[in-house]
Every structure is written in C-alpha cells, then in structure tokens.
C-alpha cells in the first residue's frame, strides 16, 4: 500500500517538473499550415517595414493575376522565424516556400531531404537564372545542386561613420587598421565612443572577425576552415583574433556593448545620435537609419566605406562579406499542386521589376538583378545604391557570413566563443582550439 | 513512512474514481508521453530536421563531460537560492502588512499586485530598455549610479535577473502569505497581548511559526519556478554575458533549437527533470511531517 502511494506521489511530482519538457515536444506539433489540407501554396515572410510590405505586395499581385494559383502568406519576426521554420520542417509542417539565407542551414535541409533540387528546373527555365547575379547562386548550392533560388537583395558589410563627429575631431576615415586604432585614441580622448556595437546579438561581433580574417589571411583562410581544415590556429587567424581583442582592450567599442542588441536597432541609434563615430554593419541598416535617424542620412552626415586594409595582409581590400542574397526553396513535403504554384511564382512572380524597384526606392537596398544599376539615376539614394552595387559586383571575393555558411551546430559554438572572445573571457589561442574542436559538427 | 492521503487518493478508490480520467488522459498525453519521448531522444543524435539515428550513450557522454553542465547547474542553483532569499522575507513582511484591514492597505495591495499581471517577456523587454547604458533610465535622468553596464557584466546581470524575478513574483507570494496570516486565530494574538508580548515578539512567536506550511508551499513554488526560469533570461540576456546567466532550462533550449542538437538537449532535459524531482521530494519531506495542526504546538 505504502509503495503504491509513494509511486503515485512521485508520479504527481513528475507532473510538476515536466511542463517545460512537454512544451518542447508539444511545440514540435505546432500547427503550421498543413501540407495536404489546402490547395494554396504557403509562404512565410518576415515582418518589418518596408520589406514586409514589398514581399506581401509581390504575393498580392500574383494572387490577383492568378485566381487558380493562390499563395497564402503568414508573417513572422526574424528571430522567431528562424526558430519556427526549423521546428516546422522537422515536424513535416513546412510551408511550400521556405525562405532562408542559404549556406549551412540550407545544407542541413538538403541533406535531410526536406527541400527540392531546383537544378533541372532552372535549366529548363534558364531565363530565371540569367537575370540574377551569378555570385548569388553559390550560397544556394549544396554539392553542386541548386536548392535555394536567390531572391531579394545583396547585403554586403559596410563600415559606416558619422561625418559630423569626424569633422568635430578633425579626423579622416581610416584607410588601414592602424588608422582605425589611431582613431580609437582620438575619439576616446574627445569623449566620444569610437565604435558602436550591439554585442549581445553576437553575430554583430562576428562581422569584425570576418573582415579581419579576410584582410589578414585572405578569403582562403576561412574557406579552408569551412572545408574542414583546423585552421583556426593558423598564425593569420591568431593575428586577427588578437587584433580584435586589442581593439576591445583599447576601448574601441562603446562602453556596455555586451548588453546592446541589434534587434532593437540600438547600435544604429548610437551612430545617428552622435554617441559613436563608427559602426560595421550590413547594408540592411541603411533603411532603418534613414527612417529613424531624423535628418541624419538626408543631411549627408552618414559616411560609408569598405573595411580598411590591414598593412601586410594577404586579402584584397576590395573583398567583402555579408549576404550575397536571400533564398527561397521548395518544401519536398508539399503537394505537387502546391509545388507547381510555387515554381510558377518563382518564374513569373518573384523579384519582378515592380518588386525590385520597391527594394531600391523604399528600402535603399540593391536587388540581385543584373543591370539594375541603370535604375539608380536621379534617385535620392543614388550615391549609396551605386556604392553598394559596386562593392558587391566588383568584389574579387564576396563571402557569406560565417554563421550562415556553417552548420547550425558549428555556428552556435562559434557565436558562443565569439561572445567570450569579445568579453575577454578567453584568449585567442583558447578560441582557436575550441573552434578547431567543433569543426565538422 | 507516513504519507498524506490526498483527495485524489480517496476518490480513486471510491466510486467516483472515473472522475480523474480526463485529467489523467491529459496528463499522460502532455507529460508522460513527451517525457518518454525525450528520454528516448537522449539516446539519439538528431539535428531536428533529418533522420533520427540511435547513438547509444554518446549524447549523455557529451553532456556529462561538457564543462558547460556544471556551470549551468551552478547558475541554476544560484538563481534558486538567491531568488528564494530575495523573495521570502519580503513576501512575508508584505503579507503581514496587507493582511490588515485598513482601506489604504487594500489600495496599496492592488498596486503591489501589478507586476503579477504582466508577462515575463513584457517585463524583460521593459527592464532591458530601462537599464540600457546609453538610452535607458540612467542616462535619461542623468543619474550616474543608474548608468551601469547592467546586462553586460556577469555579476550585475545576475543581480538584475534576481531583482526582476523578485519584483515580479513577490506579489504572488505575499498573496499566499496574506491568506495564511488571516487564518491565524485572533485569540492567539489576544492571549499574547495579555502576556505582555510586543508586536515584534508576536510576529516571531506566533505569526512566523504558524506560517510554516505556507512557507513550504511558497518555497516549493519558488524553487520549481526558478528551476525552470527561461523566458525572462532568454529575453533579457540570452544567457550572457559569457554564460553568466545561462541556466539549465536555457541551456537546454539553446542546445536543442539553436545548435540543432536534439539528442544533447534531451539529455539536459532529463537532467532537469531529475533535479526537479529531487528538489520537489526534498521539500515534501521537509513539510510532510507534523501534519497535525500547528495551532497548538509550534
């Protein structure tokens, strides 16, 4: 009898301790648009204006013109989307059109048999491929097959700076890494934070490492790591890791950067409210600074340049990093009818002239359409758009952001270690050996 | 060992036993089956997308040898202990205060309960904005001492987490204590007064001992709650800076859904369940004895 009761009691105690576990599994069965229940193709888009409206607009136009081939959208916030899409795909509840950033995540989808191979479709419909930037296809390709069709815009990393603050201290934009370290001293002496950084987001810190790796060791350095060689301990890599810690130690980044997030655009705000002089960020921040920064952009206070060279480094100073494009794939779990709708949309609905021009005019970004620079003339953002276009198209190497290129497991280890590197909690050597141990995971 | 006969135990042997059936079914569907699933998953290697492959004890070995686990256990323990210390005394004092009957206390009580009405995510976002070292309350009001790197330094971030947990949950525990205090017969206080006991003496000799069972209930809720604290820390610090606030529950989520290692995450989840069970059992032991009324003894 006693035994009986005791087991019942532990049973109840178990109930008290399990809600989290239950949540984890229950969320796997989260109701997504079920594949078979509807004829319409489904498409998940990201929130955040102006791009949300542009994405939605393209689908709306399609739906109006194709009554028998409807597409249903649901919208999600960026970070929430990244978590949800993975779970949905794992549970076989993915939308017909899977949006993403290519690279390691797409590789895991492709290897799990969750997305369709688009290679032969693109051969039949060569027009779709020919009008897009050639360089954009690399990150959508896994083992020589194209699983992700590039779309939307090209987003290289840019060193932004505040012209007003530079004038105030009488400084010039940095041409070399040593110039940049010199500027840190100058701005600190003037009581201005040299560099804005949303360090809690971690991938923001990563951008500094990416470009230092490139400028010091050339694009081959990270490529070799990506291909499985334990080259985090390469002397060039250690040099780059040391340089970034030197920058932290010299108070290069704004005080408290570890608690600032990029999601809330606080790092951009630091630049346009004259609290920080420089910021390394993707071109996607331009639109935000234009909308939220008052007259900061329109009065010409925003300066931008490619990342400076490191004297004696192997990398071409014209190289860049970032998102070569965004990508759409087709869920292999979708019905044939849904797949057909999605492919028809890829061919005649996605990134057509109207959508492309909206990215230029509303978001200040460069769509990945060949010859699109002819549309820049006379626009308010002409100079900026031209700069982005040239940066992306002239770069001898346009590498994909590390956290997107690597597998999700390796990327998470990377971001964890980057946070500790910037927090001076680990040495460059410790960082390198931690990362070498994570290769191939 | 003597075990309290729960009402459920009564009815399940009686004629109305079938009444527990719906609850039991839901419990099995949403707690037992997932738990078994998680246990099975902990012996696999799965990225959440591709095929699940059984890898035996690999995940367990990886979790148990990872220096991250002792750290996460330590941080979890800190959160449990510190939030208990921060909440319990204040909750009791507040409970005593609002158990009086003057009208202004009722008004104050409503104000005290406000934090309870907000979701942890909303609270975290609000605090994050207030504590921002560049755009928050400190720089906004030009208050030097408030302008700290609150979430960027390990000890400060832990302090902030404990503070917000306390801020949000003290109202709830005060409410429990308030109810318990109102149950204490007035005659006991009258007798004490006749014996010449002052208010402080009354508090320590009557109120506090009478609250013993309530304290155990409230502590159980606090401890199990702290053990599974997730949303607040996830929104506020993401476990940072440098893992300073990476509690076990968050570690499980990040391992599973960020690093795509469902096998490892499941092993962590099982550890979490075991720790929760042990704690719950310990607390039950603590309160299980001396069932008889506290009114006479203590």
From TrEMBL, chain A:
<protein>
    <submittedName>
        <fullName>Extracellular solute-binding protein</fullName>
    </submittedName>
</protein>
<dbReference type="InterPro" id="IPR006059">
    <property type="entry name" value="SBP"/>
</dbReference>
<dbReference type="InterPro" id="IPR006311">
    <property type="entry name" value="TAT_signal"/>
</dbReference>
<dbReference type="Pfam" id="PF01547">
    <property type="entry name" value="SBP_bac_1"/>
</dbReference>
<dbReference type="InterPro" id="IPR050490">
    <property type="entry name" value="Bact_solute-bd_prot1"/>
</dbReference>
